[in-house]
């Protein structure tokens, strides 16, 4: 199970602190949603017992700006996340096969519907369930967010759209253990198994992209193997 | 009042809970209990809160690290866990909450999951982002004091 976090300077804790805390909480790794953060991934992976996945979270005002950033980051990051929040951005993210995850589709004015779900399934874009407001907000804002999440589950279930779950932690204190998130999911009516699957999806996604970026990969279904040399 | 016959006594489960916060956080058992009940009430209402109980029993917290035992009715452990996950601030101080384990008696709970103390705490200056800054070094990590509050780091960030 993996969790995606905002590391310093985007958040209040460094990647190393996130990774040690996540390891203690029972996660297999952390995904760094880097906007300004530039950690040294090689050293971190060598020193820590927990996996660290390099990702970029694109925060843009509109599709044009996001499109440029997607082109810039795609070649050198394992995962590419686009933060939604407006209908135009949500639509842009699910229609780009180069994007891995659409994060926070309900932040701000954004909404999600069956058209976006079908596009996301077609392009293999994961839609994020943001547990941040569920854990940290109160009152009407939280009620509306829970309502949105339940609606999202209903739509995604119907179109078999892939999804990920995250608590969107900005410091190691906002991180919650997988079993805690599962319990919260159970309470919200999303189902425990479903939440666990969403946490696992980060790991599956990272593995798949790493395999694709490795040198032996040529095209889907075509890989360079080990063969005897011809004389 | 005379205590209930054994078969009518409630069955409890005890959750061992680990707490973590920034080094300058100050709160006590009462503050944590209030936040936990608020969290439960906000998550599943008054009826659900009564059905889960969630009394904070033993409590210790100092220098940004602590542990406590939370009581819940048997069968309501999942709900208790969910309410604990929703405790994000106590007295305005952000806290990290984790359930270390669940037991059927307070004693087993403390012996199995708690009491592996905070260890030593040391204050010294560290070089973080090419700048010397005061920091609190603990077993769990190093909290560096910055202009806008603390930054959570580990020894790895200073090498």
UniProtKB/TrEMBL annotation, chain A:
Top-level taxonomy: Archaea, Methanobacteriati, Methanobacteriota, Stenosarchaea group, Halobacteria
UniProt subcellular location: Cytoplasm
Record EC number: 3.1.26.5
Catalytic activity: Endonucleolytic cleavage of RNA, removing 5'-extranucleotides from tRNA precursor
Record protein name field: Ribonuclease P protein component 3
Top enzyme class: hydrolase
Top-level division of the source organism's lineage: Archaea
Gene3D superfamilies given in the database record: Metal-dependent hydrolases
Family from the record: Belongs to the eukaryotic/archaeal RNase P protein component 3 family.
Species: Halogeometricum limi
Cellular component GO terms held in the UniProt record: cytoplasm; ribonuclease P complex
Main location: cytoplasm
TrEMBL record, chain B:
EC class (word): hydrolase
Gene name linked to the record: rnp2
Species, as recorded: Halogeometricum limi
Subcellular location(s) per record: Cytoplasm
Organism lineage: Archaea, Methanobacteriati, Methanobacteriota, Stenosarchaea group, Halobacteria
Protein name: Ribonuclease P protein component 2
Keyword terms: Cytoplasm, Endonuclease, Hydrolase, Nuclease, tRNA processing
Catalytic activity of the protein: Endonucleolytic cleavage of RNA, removing 5'-extranucleotides from tRNA precursor
EC number: 3.1.26.5
GO molecular function annotations of the record: ribonuclease P activity
GO BP, one annotated term: tRNA 5'-leader removal
GO cellular component: cytoplasm; ribonuclease P complex
